[in-house]
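Q: Here's a chain of 676 amino acids. Please give me its 3D structure as tokens.
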Amino acid sequence: MQTQTILLIILAFIIALVVALYQYLYKTKKKHKKSFFFAFLRFLSVFALLVLLINPTFKKHTYFVEKPTLVVAIDNSKSIKYLKKDQEVSTFIEQVKSDPNLNNRFSIVYYSFSSTLSDSLSLSFDQKQTNISKTLQDLDQIYKNSIAPTLLVTDGNQTYGKDYQYSSKRYKQSIYPVIVGDTITVTDTKIQQLNVNKYAYLKNKFPVEVILNYSGNQDVVTSFEVKSGSDTVYSQDVSFSDENNSVVVNLTLPASNAGVVQYNARLVPLSNEKNTGNNNKAFAVEVIDQKTNVLLVSDILHPDLGAIKKSIESNERRSVVMSKPSDKKNLDDYQMVILYQPNSRFRELYKNLSSQRKNYFTITGAETDWIFLNAIQKKYAHEITRQTEYYLPRFNSNYGTFLFDDIGFQNYPPLIGTFGEVIINTNYDPLLYRTISNIETEEPLLITIEEDGIREAVLFGNGLWRWRAQNYLDTQNFESFDDFFSKIIQYLASTKRKSRLNTISESFYYGNANIKIKAEYFTKNYEFDRRGNLRIVTKNKETEATQTVPMILKNNSYEVDLSNLSPGNYDYTVTVTGENISRSGSFTVLEYDVEQQFLNADVTKLKQVATNTNGNVYSLDQRNILFKNLIEDQRYQTIQKSKENVVSLIDWKYLLAIVILLLAVEWFARKYNGLI
């Protein structure tokens, strides 16, 4: 308590004493024994009221015992059930819960994990993916300021994510892996990996690479085959030994029919194999019978031309032919045309584009002849200044013509364009706005136009090669920029008319991947409508089983996750409640369960994790040794802690009750003695 507070309390004592003596002894002419009693009551009540006004504070110390935390993380993936260890894991968890010594020593918390970490202990062992690295990362964040040794109950088989063997070095707690599954290597052959492109061109051949693995110590011979339906399209004998335990098979298959073609790769199991689920792998290829040809026309040499060509041709379904405006080209051979910085030499090309109703992409810049461009078309016009300006891009998150994400345009270098105002004389959708000298404007930098069935995109600046280079500096690849440019090309190369409802889906999905279908819904003015109530109905073509699922609004699209679908061929229809609009499509779910590919626990990695974190490795049947070692480990001690609370006297309700009681007693006593 502070000195000032003590002095105030002493002063309150004196004031209360003076008030009591003055009222009952000094002021009263007839003094009797009861006057001292009344003065005492008045002193106490006044002193208590003054103390309440002073409101002193007191420090209260509370002592409590805090036990160390024991984290128990259980693998809830399908591989546990495939290894036939699900019942043993459940029994082990019950033994942890019921052990009195362990529960007295630790505060035990339970988690289950698969692709994500969950604080629920409802173990079903039906999850399709395992990411141990992310599980350790999440636990590290939760217990970064605590002592929390971790029991990791798992087979150690991770299906995706960073290698937890190395990422565990950053984990601040000791990890005790409890190994689930066989630790003894048994004879097994499997398809380790299959690499194939998703697309192929009609009447071409596409490559397939298959990696086959063998675990065992004897020389064996088996065969590898690929089937399409009931037909065997490829077959080869393969041999393995203890030293030669991996074989890479490279083959090419013909793309004879357009559409999605399904295949099944099979490595014939050995007679003594226990796990044959990893000997089969389904895959599919979408055979395309059309290639997008793009004509790039320019009258000047510029680095942008090379960047545009590289970006478009990063998609093997597209090719670019570069030409001068004076060259005679048959536009029927191309799905779209790019006009780079047009001038008066483009006059004939513009006439042909108009007569043949071709979609095109106009890129303007510092060397564009705006006098010609303003005269040859009436959709937009630029003020003639003959001066240049630098324009930084700013993404329009409300762009609705097609789905598009910001790829980090705010970090991209400026484009060079003509200084002056741009006037748009038609309906347009801005994808990028101009930022000039750090001033955000509403003037467009990149727009798309759809008028009378003809689509056009216009970029008011040159220097795209700098954007592609910046994308590489940011991400160490060109994928984001190439995808950005690819979506523009795809929009312009399509001849489909704009619809109020569009769906986006893959032709096929692998069984271990997320099956997501997206939809775009627009108003009658073709503005994205966030008020829509969209539903999707899926139907299995073989069983004719249907299910109806609502679609959820996410950013500028509606989305549904159908990852619960079993392998098979499906039709789907997306409808809008209250509108006579629907869109249909189809897709295939290929049978593939990555969790079924494992036969043994990954003991090597789990031992390394224990070494990295100063822990130890145990098996499920070593629970007594594990419990004993944890209890006796001196690193995990119960800690007595104190908690200091600052309490104000005004919060003590009993003092107010005492004041009321004192005043009441004084009043009744005076009333009884006829002094009132």
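Q: Can you summarize the key feature?
A: The chain has a mean pLDDT of 85.
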